[in-house]
UniProtKB/TrEMBL annotation:
Coiled coil ranges: none
Top-level lineage group: Bacteria
Pfam family, any one: GDP_Man_Dehyd
PANTHER family on file: DTDP-D-GLUCOSE 4,6-DEHYDRATASE-RELATED
Ranges of residues in domain NAD(P)-binding: 6-303
Protein name as it appears in the record: NAD-dependent epimerase/dehydratase
Native source organism of the sequence: Dethiosulfovibrio peptidovorans DSM 11002
Length: 311
């Protein structure tokens, strides 16, 4: 029988790439998304446009904070939930910690309740590298339980991981928390640095650079993330796992800007700004566990994929 995946946040950047893959593989897919105004709805509508008329695809415009609404509108039987819906910005979470808590914590709890009520036994959760925060022991390994989050956003992702443990233990729901490391690629959210800088440099406008350019990120290509999610959907060994999905390499902010300059053939005008609260100095994934459990092998090469993104 054709399997059915419920994807929350499926109109967004990562979600829409996952939906593309699932549709290619013949899944039935239901997307729950409320088109959160964090960025333009038209971008999300264009992300999902290819599937709107496919009978195997269903879009449910609903807010994950509204559990009764989901109970009413989601009537199919689902084999797996991939829960990606969230308020996703680090810096904006400092201005709106309660809003982040409501969507990312209560919303996640609602999805877990939904899984419990409907007997859905596989739950994949989008966590984040930001849970490690300022833990200095890089590359970060899942075995290192010293989490030092420094933004409300990061703390909501820690909460999601812990709630998942509770539901997996009490209700036998297999819960995979995947810690994504800075994801980039086509359709990247407009608030993220690569997207924002590319646009400003092309327009000849100054780019705000926070700090001296030495902060480092483990940039992960969206196709690699989607393959990791897909593999987690089939994982059937243990009931609860936390798994890094990163690229296992780091790129400094200065190198990232240089890569954009080279691809565009335009020199950036730098508007140097102080380091922002909530920003961590580095992220770096140990990807061994993902390799062992999910057969995960990131293939995205930063300069090559940057060129594709800019295209
Ligand atoms: N992009 C990254 O680098 C990155 C890194 C780590 C973790 N993540 C996590 O991955 C997931 C997907 O991120 P993304 O970059 O694709 O972000 P995105 O903003 O493009 O996608 C999130 C989607 O969730 C939807 N959404 C938000 N609030 C909702 C609500 N209350 N009810 C229903 N839908 C709602 C939004 O409309 C959006 O379509 C998020 O959970 C994010 O925290 C992303």
């Amino acid at each position: 029988m054709t399997k059915h995946c419920l994807v929350t946040g499926g109109a967004g950047f990562i979600g829409s790439h996952l939906v593309d893959l699932l549709m290619d593989q013949g899944w039935n897919v239901t997307v729950v998304d409320n088109f959160d105004p964090f960025y333009d709805k038209s971008i999300k509508l264009s992300n999902i446009a290819p599937h709107r008329d496919n009978p195997k695809y269903r879009l449910v415009e609903e807010d994950i904070r509204n559990l009764p609404g989901m109970r009413e509108k989601l009537n199919d039987s689902y084999d797996v939930i991939v829960h990606l819906a969230a308020k996703a910005g680090v810096r904006p979470s400092i201005q709106d910690p309660v809003g982040y808590q409501e969507v990312n914590v209560t919303g996640t709890q609602n999805m877990l309740e939904f899984a419990k009520e409907r007997n859905i036994k596989q739950f994949v959760f989008a966590s984040s590298s930001s849970v490690y925060g300022i833990n200095p022991n890089v590359p970060w390994s899942e075995d290192d339980h010293v989490l030092m989050p420094i933004s409300p956003y990061a703390s909501t992702k820690v909460s999601g991981e812990l709630m998942g443990h509770v539901y997996s233990h009490l209700y036998d729901i297999r819960f995979l928390a995947l810690r994504f490391f800075t994801v980039y690629g086509p359709r990247q959210r407009p608030d993220l640095a690569i997207h924002k800088f590319t646009k400003l440099i092309k327009e000849g406008k100054p780019i705000p650079v926070y700090g001296d350019g030495s902060t480092r990120r483990d940039y992960t290509y969206v196709e690699d993330i989607v393959k990791g999610i897909r593999s987690a959907m089939d994982y059937d060994k243990t009931l609860y796992e936390v798994i890094n999905l990163g690229n296992n390499k780091t790129v400094s902010l200065a190198e990232m800007i240089e890569a954009i300059e080279q691809t565009l053939g335009i020199k950036a005008i730098i508007d140097r700004q102080p380091t922002q609260p909530g920003d961590v100095p580095q992220t770096w994934a140990d990807a061994d566990k993902a390799h062992r459990l999910l057969d995960y092998e990131p293939r995205g090469d930063f300069s090559r994929e940057m060129a594709r993104f800019i295209d």
